[in-house]
């Protein structure tokens, strides 16, 4: 591995520390090196706080002059919540900047690199770009398409069942898989569910710090940036005294009359009117609204009907399937409500990862285009 790759790999490792706290901002890491030695490191912790480059420059101090800065995202050129990092790199006298990828934020989009070049700094782009894109898939999709990255989590038996006919579904998978799901929740901007799940499972869909299995620093960070919990309840069937509402402020997406807004507000929740038909919220419009509120990644934890609707409408970017080594039998409920008549209609997936998680298995699969 070249020195450039090694430094960018370290910058990506730093960026990943922001997995649970940076949203709506991207996860970014920075390494500053001079004469083959790392002299500064930094990562973006939270929106409103200094960017990765600023932390690394502070650590490098005077040693930044003539050094190379490795950043996982193009340095910003705009005045957002913080001043432009490109200017800070120029002022520090950095000689070379290596980035993994351009910033898809239209306020930056190449302007940061252009500013560095104008100042006589040598710039190169594209080092470990694929890894950087994967880390910020949600931020990139929101910037480029005005939609969040949608990850659907499903837990099933080896025979593809998610709950007994009675609705009983706890616990299909073991504690390691449940901790992995906790981390998925913590890294999401939004955790989204439907009325069926909230009513049948008494689900709360909260992040529980003691179940995350993270070190103290990341656990504390995750607690400062919990995901917004969103309930899709087209006909307002879920009463306000269920555990889901009692677990904290909720955004309820509905196509029912907004007359109930005050009742939800009084209980500390927000009612969002979303167009829809036959009591079904328009999922694409809801996702666009969530992106408008800064949601990079949405985790869907729902039953077969809502998860099936996301699949049918082609709104899923990634499935995470937790598979327990047991059979639930033929009267148990299927994974997705996805009525398909012919093999030609089958939804093709590309499996990108299969990994043991305790006694269970995690399969990460991506929908394949038409
Ligand atoms: N290069 C870079 N490093 C970081 O550490 C960052 N957080 C970003 N973010 C870019 O700047 C925008 C946010 O700016 P403010 O935090 O509001 O000042 C964000 O949308 C990215 O474009 N970039
Ligand atoms: Zn910046």
TrEMBL record:
Gene3D superfamilies: Cytidine Deaminase, domain 2, Dihydrofolate Reductase, subunit A. Its cofactor is Zn(2+). It comes from the Bacteria. Its EC number is 3.5.4.26, 1.1.1.193. Keywords: Hydrolase, Metal-binding, Multifunctional enzyme, NADP, Oxidoreductase, Riboflavin biosynthesis, Zinc. One of its GO terms (molecular function) is diaminohydroxyphosphoribosylaminopyrimidine deaminase activity. PROSITE patterns: CYT_DCMP_DEAMINASES_1, CYT_DCMP_DEAMINASES_2. The keyword Ribosomal protein does not apply. Pathway: Cofactor biosynthesis; riboflavin biosynthesis; 5-amino-6-(D-ribitylamino)uracil from GTP: step 2/4; Cofactor biosynthesis; riboflavin biosynthesis; 5-amino-6-(D-ribitylamino)uracil from GTP: step 3/4. Binds 1 zinc ion. Transmembrane segments: none annotated. SUPFAM superfamilies: Cytidine deaminase-like (SSF53927), Dihydrofolate reductase-like (SSF53597). The keyword Metal-binding applies. Residues 2-124 form the CMP/dCMP-type deaminase domain. It catalyses: 2,5-diamino-6-hydroxy-4-(5-phosphoribosylamino)-pyrimidine + H2O + H(+) = 5-amino-6-(5-phospho-D-ribosylamino)uracil + NH4(+); 5-amino-6-(5-phospho-D-ribitylamino)uracil + NADP(+) = 5-amino-6-(5-phospho-D-ribosylamino)uracil + NADPH + H(+). NCBIfam families: eubact_ribD (TIGR00326), ribD_Cterm (TIGR00227). Converts 2,5-diamino-6-(ribosylamino)-4(3h)-pyrimidinone 5'-phosphate into 5-amino-6-(ribosylamino)-2,4(1h,3h)-pyrimidinedione 5'-phosphate. In the N-terminal section; belongs to the cytidine and deoxycytidylate deaminase family. PANTHER family: 2,5-DIAMINO-6-RIBOSYLAMINO-4(3H)-PYRIMIDINONE 5'-PHOSPHATE REDUCTASE, DIHYDROFOLATE REDUCTASE FAMILY PROTEIN (AFU_ORTHOLOGUE AFUA_8G06820). This is Riboflavin biosynthesis protein RibD. It comes from Pseudomonas aestuarii.
């Amino acid at each position: 591995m070249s020195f450039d790759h090694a430094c960018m790999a370290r910058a990506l490792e730093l960026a990943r520390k922001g997995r649970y706290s940076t949203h709506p901002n991207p996860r970014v890491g920075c390494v500053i090196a001079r004469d083959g030695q790392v002299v500064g490191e930094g990562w973006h912790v939270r929106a409103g706080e200094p960017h990765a480059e600023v932390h690394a420059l502070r650590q490098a101090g005077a040693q930044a002059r003539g050094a190379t800065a490795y950043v996982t995202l193009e340095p910003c050129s705009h005045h957002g919540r913080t001043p432009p990092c490109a200017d800070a790199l120029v002022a520090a006298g950095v000689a070379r900047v290596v980035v993994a990828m351009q910033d898809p934020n239209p306020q930056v989009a190449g302007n940061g690199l252009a500013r560095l070049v104008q100042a006589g700094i040598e710039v190169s782009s594209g080092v470990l770009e694929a890894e950087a894109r994967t880390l910020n898939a949600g931020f990139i999709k929101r910037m480029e398409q005005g939609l969040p990255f949608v990850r659907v989590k499903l837990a099933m038996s080896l025979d593809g069942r998610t709950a007994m006919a009675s609705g009983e579904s706890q616990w299909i998978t073991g504690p390691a898989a449940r901790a992995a799901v906790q981390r998925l929740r913590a890294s999401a901007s939004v955790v989204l569910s439907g009325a069926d799940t909230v009513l049948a499972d008494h689900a709360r869909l909260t992040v529980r710090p003691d179940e995350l299995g993270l070190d103290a620093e990341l656990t504390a960070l995750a607690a400062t940036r919990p995901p917004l919990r969103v309930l899709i309840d087209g006909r307002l069937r879920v009463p306000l005294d269920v555990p889901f509402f009692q677990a904290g402020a909720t955004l309820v997406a509905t196509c029912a009359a907004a007359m109930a807004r005050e009742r939800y507000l009084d209980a500390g929740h927000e009612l969002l009117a979303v167009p829809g038909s036959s009591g079904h919220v328009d999922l694409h419009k809801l996702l666009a609204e969530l992106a408008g509120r800064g949601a990079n990644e949405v985790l869907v934890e729902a039953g077969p009907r809502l998860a099936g609707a996301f699949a049918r409408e082609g709104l899923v970017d990634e499935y995470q399937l937790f598979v327990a080594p047991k059979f639930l039998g033929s009267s148990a409920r299927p994974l997705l409500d996805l009525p398909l008549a012919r093999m030609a209609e089958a939804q093709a997936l590309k499996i990108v990862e299969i990994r043991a998680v305790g006694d269970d298995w995690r399969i990460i699969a991506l929908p394949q285009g038409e």
